[in-house]
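Quiz preparation item.
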């Protein structure tokens, strides 16, 4: 085992000494690829507009209306807070990246009682996501596409998935995903130390996961399906 590791290290050291006529064009090509898959300023603004549309829909739902008589909720416009995580939050997204949102705060059940989202039962969680789905469709924020309709996936972590009616962008909404928000922020902080990290990350996520896998009809990376 030790001999195998030593041979692998020796081989790696030898590969480091690539000729300039190889490294130069390769570096130029990879940078051009990253530049091509990087989103524009308009796309950044369009994604923020999609987030604002979700916030406006939630603010207009009775489910998230604050109790004006409560001193604790005074001044609030909406009981639900919309937070961004994933590639858009870490600034590592590309033109075809999904938009990942998570909701935090409170929700009124069918009796009008405000419940903390952290304490919702699976039944209440599904009921809330279904009501949000219908509100998004009614306000035409979610595209009513019969081939790809808005769907609530009742997995271990329930998720509402839909296509934005303006951008055609795939959006996922979950509840209280603190870990996802933390990891996204950590990746953003990590990229500030060395800009090369952003280049490598975009190449792997933009080409490896999002462009090459669909060509092989692979959609679930962990299972290879």
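Solution:
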């Amino acid at each position: 085992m030790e001999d195998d590791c030593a041979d692998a290290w020796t081989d790696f050291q030898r590969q480091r000494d690539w000729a300039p006529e190889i490294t130069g064009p390769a570096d130029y090509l990879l940078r051009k690829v990253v530049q091509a898959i990087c989103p524009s300023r308009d796309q950044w603004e369009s994604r923020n507009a999609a987030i604002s549309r979700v916030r406006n829909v939630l603010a207009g739902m009775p489910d998230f209306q604050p109790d004006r008589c409560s001193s604790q909720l005074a001044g609030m416009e909406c009981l639900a807070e919309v937070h961004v995580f994933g590639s858009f939050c870490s600034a590592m997204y590309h033109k075809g990246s999904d938009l990942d949102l998570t909701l935090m705060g409170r929700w009124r059940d069918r009796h009008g009682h405000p419940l903390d989202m952290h304490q919702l039962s699976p039944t209440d969680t599904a009921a809330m996501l279904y009501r949000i789905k219908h509100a998004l469709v009614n306000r035409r924020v979610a595209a009513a596409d019969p081939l790809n309709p808005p769907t609530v996936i009742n997995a271990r972590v329930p998720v509402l998935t839909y296509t934005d009616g303006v951008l055609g962008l795939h959006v996922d909404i979950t509840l209280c995903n603190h870990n996802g928000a933390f990891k996204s922020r950590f990746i953003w902080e990590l990229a500030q130390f060395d800009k090369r990290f952003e280049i490598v990350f975009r190449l792997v996520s933009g080409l490896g996961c999002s462009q090459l896998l669909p060509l092989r009809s692979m959609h679930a990376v962990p299972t290879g399906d």
